[in-house]
Amino acid sequence: MKNLLFLSLMVHALVASVFSVKCYSCSSTNRTCEKVIEIECLGGQCFTASERFYNGVKTFELFLKGCACDELCGGQGRATGENIEYQFNGVCCTGDDCNIDEFRLPDNKIPNGLQCPTCYNNISTDECVSDMKVNCTGNQVLCYDYRASMQNPDGSVLQYSSKGCANKFVCDVNFDKHIGLIELYREHLNCTAPNPDPQ
Ligand SMILES: *[C@@H]1O[C@H](CO)[C@@H](O)[C@H](O)[C@H]1NC(C)=O
Ligand SMILES: *[C@@H]1O[C@H](CO)[C@@H](O)[C@H](O)[C@H]1NC(C)=O
Ligand SMILES: *[C@@H]1O[C@H](CO)[C@@H](O)[C@H](O)[C@H]1NC(C)=O
Ligand SMILES: *[C@@H]1O[C@H](CO)[C@@H](O)[C@H](O)[C@H]1NC(C)=O
Prior knowledge:
binds 2-acetamido-2-deoxy-beta-D-glucopyranose; UPAR/Ly6 domain-containing protein; secreted; LY6_UPA_recep-like; CNF-like_PLA2_Inhibitor
């Protein structure tokens, strides 16, 4: 029994030494990310993440370093609609103190020929409706329809209803893996291919 315990402790120590790394850790609303400390990450990967959200009135930014969140590794997200610009970038790396990357946000604004219906409402999660369209850019190949109550990084809460262009990553992570924004309640999310528009 004692030997078994010893063995299991040995295995734990071994696993910990193989899969844990030291990572820089900080969180800031600007790129300085001051007060960098080191933390132990059991997943074995470190993380550098950048997020920007503009809602037509305010820009919220959050930059952080720490332990990797697997789902966000290598993820570059962009969604664009009336009054909305969302950008996310997640970089993961392996090795002690490897997360020294600068903070970057994906910003390919070159139109790709696709268009999506777009509208915006910040007082209700009822579907917004409009005849307007927005030009999709970069790798935005999907149209989103998103309605949710969101807490902004400054603590304020808004009811959003928004339509526009999104890239696959934003839809794949299901719109709710933000680092600064918190979704409090979701009414609807749908990502669909743009309708071919004969014109
Ligand atoms: C950056 O943010 C920190 C808090 O996260 C703040 O103390 C500092 O003044 C900010 N620096 C600039 C240049 O805005
Ligand atoms: C809500 O959106 C309107 C424009 O549609 C804008 O004038 C107003 O400032 C926004 N409110 C907030 C809190 O963002
Ligand atoms: C969207 O793209 C079309 C061409 O595909 C262009 O005529 C139009 O000006 C663009 N609209 C905006 C708001 O950039
Ligand atoms: C998403 O939208 C498409 C096209 O409008 C529709 O066929 C599909 O049922 C919708 N899915 C959900 C889950 O609302």
